[in-house]
Amino acid sequence: MDSIDGMWVGWIEFDILLGDVQSLKEKRSVIRPLLAELKRRFEVSVAEVGDHDQHRRSQVGAGLVAADRAHLVEVLTAVERFVAAKPEIELLSARQREIHSED
Hints:
Shape: elongated
Distance between the termini: 13 Å
Low-confidence stretches: none
Helix content: 25-40%
Strand order of the largest sheet: 2-3-1-4
CATH architecture: 2-Layer Sandwich
Number of domains: 1
Radius of gyration: 15 Å
Number of strands: 4
CATH superfamily: TT1725-like
Number of helices: 2
CATH class: Alpha Beta
CATH topology: Alpha-Beta Plaits
Strand content: 35-45%
């Protein structure tokens, strides 16, 4: 089988600290638009994946499937830059991983 065949799967997970947020309702008003914008702008699957019960913290994940690793890394890097640039959140950490279907 040709080594360029197959697919790449990648994801990035963010640990986020929210700014002046006093309730879970306020947290949702920040996180929901962020998830919608990531999905629309970058065509990735996104979800809040942790810290559901803490109003100032959130774990957000984004993932995608691509035919080549370069495209995958480019999109995930752009997603990270976008999240890091949001003034209403502080990006505490980001963890990224890519795997090939043949691995």
